[in-house]
Amino acid sequence: MFKAEWQYNRRDFKAHALVLVGFVALIWFIEIVDWITPWATMDGWGIRPRTLTGLFGIALSPFLHGSFGHVAANSLPFLLFGGLIMLRRPSHFWTVSLIIALLGGIGTWLTGAPNSVHIGASGLVFGYFGFLLLLGYFERSIPAILQSLLIGFFYGGLIWGVLPGQIGISWQGHLFGFLAGALAAYLLADGER
Predict the structure, then answer these.
(1) Which CATH fold would you assign to the domain 10-188?
(2) How far apart are CA 122 and CA 176, in angstroms?
(3) Could you give the count of Cα atoms lying within 13 Å of 175 in the half-sphere of its Cβ?
(4) pTM of the entire predicted model
(5) Phi, psi values for residue 168, rounded to 5°
(6) Residue 189, by phi and psi: left (phi above 0), alpha (psi -120 to 50) or beta?
(7) Which of 185, 166, 188, 142 shows the shortest CA–CA distance to 70?
(8) Which pLDDT tens digit goes with each residue over 30-54?
(9) Confidence band, pLDDT 50/70/90 cuts, at residue 89
(10) Distance from chain centroid for Cα 66
(11) What pLDDT does 2 receive?
């Protein structure tokens, strides 16, 4: 069994917190601007499935939200799950985020309903959840297994969000974000597979 190399450095805490809190502050700011200027709504800049302009939404959709409630629902899980990934290895946060945003966005773009727009950071949140949940399985180190078990115990109910259910909720974004996070766990796990 391999021991995971946890590279978190306490002196970097402020920089890491700034990244996480900065992202959350940015999505709140964008939603406030969107609310103040209803004639120039930005929500249409999200992922529009199988359209050329919708491809730009892959990069923009995590920053756009439909309401303040939508932003609030994504803020705390983003801080928690993103923080756990950064605690493990800060460089993995960026790699995991890129894999999730790109592959999760492409999956949503390919499978989303026609004439729909997919927005929100929940694809990232579900991707982080998938990464943290499956890292223990792929890495097989005691710390990673314990973390995966705790994530499964406290947040396992999130898994239902990857299934079609509530109208207006992008289950495709959740599903492909989760799958991209699982792939990131496989690719970034320490040890033998």
Answers:
(1) Rhomboid-like fold (1.20.1540)
(2) 11
(3) 15
(4) 0.91
(5) 90, -5
(6) beta
(7) 166
(8) 999 999 987 778 888 999 999 999 9
(9) confident
(10) 17
(11) 40
Q: How far is CA 76 from CA 23, 25, 121, 181, in A?
A: 12, 12, 11, 18
Q: At 63, which amino acid appears?
A: F
Tell me the C-alpha distance between 94 and 88, whole Å. Answer: 12
Instruction: Output the CA torsion sign for 140, 75, 163, 111.
Output: negative
The token pair at 113 is 């309903």
Tokens 């805490």 found at: 13
Number of Cβ within a 10 Å radius of residue 32: 12
The Cα 132–Cα 118 span in angstroms is 24
Residue pLDDT, tens place only, 154-175: 999 888 988 887 777 889 999 9
What DSSP string describes 84-126?
HHHHH-HHHHHHHHHHIIIIIHHHHHHHSPTT--B-STHHHHH
Ordered DSSP codes for 151-178: HHHHHGGGGGGGSS-STTS-HHHHHHHH
* pLDDT digits 0-9 by tens, 132-148: 999 999 999 898 999 99
